[in-house]
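pasting for ref
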Amino acid sequence: MKRTFLKTGDGSITIHLPDWDEQYHSKHGAIAEAQHVFIKTGLHYFCDKYTPNTLSILEIGFGTGLNAFLTVIESKNKQLQVEYTGVEAYPIEVKELEALNYAEVLEVSENDFQKLHSAEWERKTTIVPNFQLLKRKQFFSKIEDKKAFHLIYFDAFGARVQPELWTLEILKIMYDSLKEKGMLVTYSAKGSVRRNMEAVGFTVERLPGPPGKREMLRASKNS
């Protein structure tokens, strides 16, 4: 599938898929979306509520590594121990990685971002002393973890282009992989997605969305 690059509303670059008219991140701001949905509404909220010593995160759609990169930065700022698992069936290529400007926009060193992408697949790697990364090249339907994660960043392509990633079956896998009181956050606010989340047992909140989006969802596992 053809891939191009798109400069988003906050100056950060994302990968665009013209055949689907879809991109890896919001055209209104790749970094702004990731910070709002996954960091502020996910990581910050969970840590403020439960103050974990170690936070175990599953990312659905490792993609450009932006969410992981922002989480590395947060792990340093908060002195938080993070065990991060990123699942991706189709990793991006080196030439695509070279076009991404997240470190520049964030005004931080690119070193940690490069480490995320140079880390071997299927092998746990220390990115910084308090951030451990495991990248798994895997279809989401093949995830078998049980009660393993505090937090899920659900960043799959939208239901408009890949509805099979937002089904009852996939969301049940997500529910089962969370620890008790675990949470899932996603940019999606689609009604069918919310209903599927509720059907598998989640308690779902509709919350203000990132720039360019009215709402997003946060789902909690209460048992």
